[in-house]
Amino acid sequence: MTIEELQDIGKIEKEKQEGFKYRIHVCVAAGCLSSQSGLVKEALEKEVARRGLESWALVKGVGCLGLCTAGPMVAIEPDGLLYQGVSVSDASDILEALGGPPVNRLDCSAHLPFFARQRKIVLENCGHIDPESIEDYVAEGGYEGLYNALRTMTPAGVIEQITKSGLRGRGGAGFPTGLKWTAVSKTKSNVKFVICNADEGDPGAFMDRSVLESDPHRVLEGMAIAGLAVGANYGFVYVRAEYPLAVKRIRTAIARAERLGVLGRNIFNTTFSFDVTVRLGAGAFVCGEETALIASIEGRRGSPRPRPPFPSELGLWGYPTLINNVETFANVPPIIRKGGAWFASIGTEKSKGTKVFALAGRVNNTGLIEAPMGTTLREIVFDIGGGVTGDRKFKAILTGGPSGGCIPAQFLDMSMDYESLAQVGAIMGSGGLIVMDDSSCMVDVAKFFIEFCMSESCGKCVPCRVGTVQIYNLLKRITEGGGKPSDIELLEELCDLVKNTSLCGLGQTAPNPVLSTMRYFMDEYKAHIEDKVCPAGTCHMNPTE
Question: Where are the alpha helices (DSSP H) in 177-243?
Fold first, then answer.
């Protein structure tokens, strides 16, 4: 296939869709589907057929429109209308309103700041393309980056652009992507692998799942470009089985990409071949760690091993392996199309580009967002997020999931970037943001997340296996009214021990929520211990037991 043939496919698809006067986009990502958007789409299709408008209005299922709290969502193009909370019974009114005044009861214009404050790179196609149509992806420039990388660039040139972009791994650690790719490319081996880590296990996180559900070809294209750059011909998408829709769509995308010739043997009539296989995880949080993930793909128990050697040298089945997460790979195609300098012009000096966040908790606009690095927490919570629910007082925001930290209101004007978060004892993580109001007890929050880490520990190393249990027991005792003043010092010692002696990232970061809440909300710990009172009224104190 030539670039002209690829572009013709996209041109034909675009002209076909633009031939309709109206295009009705129905969100069919997991959030809206759980609210019956599939039935809404069927109702709209039936109504179009009943009115004889098949050549006038196109009903199309699209990926996540972002504002999950308002689902099911329907967008009307080219009018730019957005409807929220749509039900089957609304189909007739939506069709009736085409070309006239919108259906006011469904109007979503009050949420415009949610969309206006974002800048979408990873999510640019979400809400616009059918995730199960490769032609729709190609119509938006899909696989042109892979073609350019194959036909106009060298592998070293590809890595140079990724390095120049300043892209850092979006899985949590923020390691420079170009540096990781360089390490794998320099290894001497005839067999190398590329792995997409889609084992998203943080409570309240749904970024990777939504990207796979909404724009799977983008991830596959990024993986293929990475394979070309580092000298790998085999790829694996490791995704948890709890994501059945994401699994279905990535498998569909692989099959259609192979059929079109943009995956598999001799891509774009070159000598480069790249095959992708899906591997399902059983939901173990620890398998998000690189070496545990590799063990799971190999069919072994998912537990980490000491590093070095790193996967770049000794990875899957003993071969050099490149591992990046979904969002990292999704950033690659636009970087190759537009150049590393373009991406580097977005964000901050050391944190380039944008970041996808799953905004959840006590916030009015829960959903999937993408904002430039350097956007403040205040902008995310109060502008994009629409503020705290019930007009309650903002108390804290947890970044980075169970491995992250709780950031109090005094840092609301802090820039969201890797360096700023580290300074306040938090991490970016994969992008989960959980907003808490004044009804949240921070000791109870710390207990919840340490319990999660305790239950998800693989048990291989003693500090994590035993230490998380001891931390949990102390916090449980404090929240039940049995805490002693000496528990504070003991907690600090235990957290330091677990953090600095655990084998992998799970244990090394598990104490973060405890340490951050002790750092910023010590008054709540003291109230529980000294006064036997929970200031938020959450904990059921019973000091007599």
Answer: 177-185, 207-214, 216-230
Q: Cα separation of 255 and 468, whole Å?
A: 43
Helix, strand, coil proportions of the chain in percent (round to 5)? Answer: 50, 15, 35
Per-block average pLDDT, block size 10, for the chain (545 residues)? 89 93 96 94 96 94 94 93 95 93 90 89 95 96 96 96 96 89 96 95 88 97 98 96 95 97 94 96 90 95 91 96 96 97 95 94 94 95 94 92 90 93 87 93 95 92 94 95 93 95 91 94 95 92 65
Residue 387 domain flag: yes
H-helix or E-strand containing 436?
strand 432-437
CA distance 537 to 143: 54
Total domains, the chain: 4
Q: Which of 500, 502, 497, 506 has the alpha carbon at shortest distance from 429?
A: 506
Q: Which residue in 137, 1, 2 sits closest to 63, CA to CA? A: 137
Identify the H or E element spanning 499. Answer: helix 486-501
The residue type at 348? T
H helix runs in 402-441, sequence order: 418-423
User: What is the C-alpha to C-alpha distance for residues 184 and 309, in angstroms, rounded to an integer?
Assistant: 12
Give the domain CATH number at 138.
3.40.50.11540
Provide the 3-class DSSP secondary structure of residue 488: helix
Give the end of a domain, one of 46, 76, 111: 111
Amino acid at 300: R
Pairing of strands 432-437, 354-361: parallel
What is the distance between the alpha carbons of residues 121 and 535, in angstroms, rounded to a whole number?
Answer: 42
pLDDT (0 to 100) of residue 545: 47
DSSP state, residue 285 = G
> Given this model, what pLDDT does residue 391 score?
86
Q: Do residues 362 and 339 both lie within one domain?
A: no
